[in-house]
Design a protein that fits this description.
The structure is a single chain. The chain is mostly helical. The chain folds into four domains: 122 residues, no CATH class; 80 residues; 115 residues, no CATH class; 46 residues, no CATH class. Strands 2-1-4-3 form a four-stranded mixed sheet. The protein has a two-stranded antiparallel sheet with strand order 5-6. It contains 23 helices and six strands. The relative contact order is 0.06. The protein is extended and about 110 Å long. The chain starts with 12 loop residues before the first strand and ends in a 5-residue tail after the last helix. Helices cover 54% and strands 6% of the residues. Strand 3 and strand 4 form a beta hairpin. The longest helix has 28 residues.
Length: 488
């Protein structure tokens, strides 16, 4: 069960900005091509975020999620689902920022859609759209965004030469002295002031939209051997399995498709044997024969050999959410992993069906507490506890880790205090611990007050104690008699 309030609350603030200006035509692409897939709620949220940004300058705008809930008339869970659909389709990037005081702020970066040509050339998106709107409407959209004349031009005039003029060919009279700004001059001070006081919105004119998924069913179909049946291999369950493999090993669709070309990967009925494929990929990784996307695996300087982020920090959350468990271990270890390390991380994803961000949190916690090792028994103990508590997000995992650490510290502190005073937690009689009944709180408080009070002066009147109160005295003696084995 997903605990929504551990991820986001209505009072959480956010800022929204554009990665580059989005034209009216591009918004039409979202309406015609994306709307049938993402639904009305996600389309409304995209439009609302787009129009919150300052139209003239592209400056970002700030609000709270409660404001989004009021504007869209959506409860928080449906609002989050609508946002996640935009993320999955590559229309929105979400960052969680944190300042030195620990206050968090969400950053929403609205991105432009794919062009119709890019959208229809993407096998997955094109097929998803066709399944939603069926043949007649799909044909209308293809006709709407078709460019028959340009196709004829390309066929008839196949040879093309780029005769575009270069900048310096046109502005050949521009002198270097015109571009010099002397150090300390009034112009340099003015430019510096403008950069500090009037920074432009960080939009990118050169940004190009790309499909957000990493899978191509076409590359799978091409590589399937003749003894298989594509309808049994390319099922919804298997496609989800392929996504997990691609993310875990950081490989592309073509590399995975090459693995699927081996007829030994399949059962007698033509369906895929996923266990065989998993073992094959592990073996190829250990032997260094797996063609991986190294660039996609990079995480900058956030992780280094022997360097672990602090539990609960923004870096810890970012690493857990964004990295493959395999890549995380590689960066912490400092290179290729041994087979036991790969087996344990892979099993948590594919056998135990845990979310990748939760697996990352579990691996980092285990490495931190077990001197950079991954003991199987320790991993399985924590794994079973988290599965029983239905931990599905990194926020829930962090809460469990911190609570476990606090409980452990209390036990250590109590043991240390007992050892320092030389007292046992229980009184001893004849070499054995004797269990004591707990005194009533009223009696305990009175005894503590009497111990803390200084001795009375001879001239002062004698103050009343527990033993002076008949009822309290009888109760105390009754408790002591039971501890000695006598009758109360």
């Amino acid at each position: 069960m997903r605990l929504l309030w551990n991820e986001i609350t209505p009072k959480d603030r956010y800022v929204v900005r554009l990665i580059r200006p989005i034209s009216f035509s591009e918004f039409g692409f979202v309406t015609h091509l994306y709307l049938p897939i993402i639904g009305v709620e996600s389309h409304t949220l995209y439009q609302l975020l787009l129009h919150e940004v300052e139209e003239k300058s592209g400056a970002c705008a700030e609000n709270t999620h409660r404001g989004l809930m009021l504007m869209t008339a959506l409860p928080l869970d449906r609002l989050l689902t609508a946002r996640e659909r935009l993320e999955a389709m590559g229309l929105l990037d979400v960052y969680r920022r944190e300042n030195k005081q620990g206050d968090s702020l969400y950053e929403y970066v609205v991105k432009p859609p794919l062009t119709p040509a890019e959208f229809f050339n993407d096998y997955v998106l094109s097929l998803m759209l066709l399944n939603r709107i069926e043949n007649f409407r799909f044909e209308q959209l293809r006709e709407r965004y078709a460019d028959v004349q340009w196709s004829q031009v390309e066929r008839e005039y196949a040879d093309a030469e780029n005769v575009t003029k270069d900048f310096h060919e046109v502005f050949d009279s521009l002198k270097a002295s015109e571009l010099e700004v002397p150090v300390g001059s009034e112009r340099e001070q003015f430019l510096t002031q403008m950069e500090e006081e009037r920074p432009p919105a960080p939009m990118l004119a050169s940004y190009q939209a790309k499909p957000s998924h990493q899978i191509s069913l076409a590359s799978f179909r091409i590589n399937l051997p003749t003894n298989t049946r594509s309808e049994k291999v390319l099922t919804g369950e298997n496609i989800e399995f392929f996504y997990k493999l691609i993310h875990f090993y950081q490989i592309d669709s073509w590399s995975l498709g090459r693995e699927l070309s081996d007829w030994t990967m399949y059962k007698s009925d033509g369906s895929l044997d996923r266990e065989v494929l998993r073992k094959r990929l592990i073996q190829k990784y250990v032997e260094g024969l797996l063609n991986r996307e190294v660039a996609a695996a990079s995480a900058g300087e956030e992780l280094a050999p022997g360097k672990l982020p602090e539990v609960g920090s923004e870096m810890f959350r970012r690493v857990c959410r964004g990295m493959s468990p395999l890549v995380l271990l590689e960066q912490v270890v400092g290179g290729k992993l041994s087979k036991p390390f790969v087996d344990r991380a892979e099993s948590l994803i594919f056998t135990d069906a845990m979310a990748a961000e939760v697996v990352n949190a579990l691996l980092l916690h285990t490495l931190h507490t077990q001197q950079m090792e991954l003991p199987k028994s320790y991993l399985e103990t924590i794994r079973d506890t988290w599965k029983a508590k239905q931990i599905t997000t990194v926020e829930e995992a962090i809460k469990q880790i911190l609570e476990r650490a606090e409980a452990r510290n209390q036990i250590v502190e109590k043991a240390s205090k007992t050892k320092k005073t030389g007292e046992s937690a229980y009184p001893r009689k004849n070499g054995r611990n004797v269990m004591q009944d707990k005194l009533p709180e009223s009696v305990q408080r009175q005894l503590e007050r009497e111990k803390e009070k200084p001795a009375a002066d001879p001239g002062e009147a004698k103050k009343q104690t527990v033993m002076d109160d008949p009822e309290l005295k009888a109760l105390l003696e009754s408790m002591r008699n039971r501890q000695k084995g006598g009758k109360s």
